[in-house]
Amino acid sequence: MLLLLLLLLLVLLLALAARWRASWSNSHWRRRGICGPQGCPLLGNMALFALGQRSYGEVYAQIYREHPGLRYVGFYRLFNEPALLVRDERLLREVLVGSSFACCADNAVNVDAQRDVLASCNPFIASGDRWRKLRADLVPLFTPSRLRQTLPHVAAACQQLRPFVERRLIRERFEAKALATRYTLQVIASAAFGLDAHCLCQDEQQEQGSEWLEWLVPLFQPSAWSLPETIALLHSSRLASILQHRWLRAPFTAALAV
Fold first, then answer.
1. Do the Cβ atoms of 86 and 72 come closer than 8 Å?
2. Residue in 29, 70, 44 with CA at minimum distance from that of residue 235
3. What are the residue boundaries of the structural domains of the chain, listed by start?
């Protein structure tokens, strides 16, 4: 009987400690005088995202709309991680291209460079000195004159897109996301590599033989693991290690190596 009481007391103390820790974490911005929504224990303000009911952007957009009079909003990401949503245009410019950029340049993306070599070379994912080096390599490729050279490729893809959509509408419904994926791949293949990816062609046999569609479309397709993998990627390097998550799957990496 005494042992049972001790166990109940221990469970109660652990529950109180967890509740105190959660309430302390959720008061991070209030203790600093910054306004924002109150977060839930563990889920912060991302409960709808964690439950798969809203996308990341929709949750952020809702927080943005609910605080129209604030220059910035203090909110909580998953696992009660404090974050700021900047609403003021002048402050946003200061963070992105002003003197405060050096303090805000790192990504909040968890990618293991050893497990996911190709993804770690993506300048939108890399951080720190690695990001600076990659950015320096890519900046000369995006001058105004070079960007103007891509316009004919974009226009050509648009000319292919119209009959492609008309043909699909006649026989079946199609996913807008899949259509956007095809269009994006067509533009990238043409503008960056000078190739026709056959993603929007009229010939179905040619379309089925497109290696671009075969290799790259699976990267954009959701799966049963999409939600936990996204949570691991954006919020928890430990969870990413447990799941052995890779931004680019092994078959795709092997195909590129060939």
1. yes
2. 44
3. 28-104, 140-257
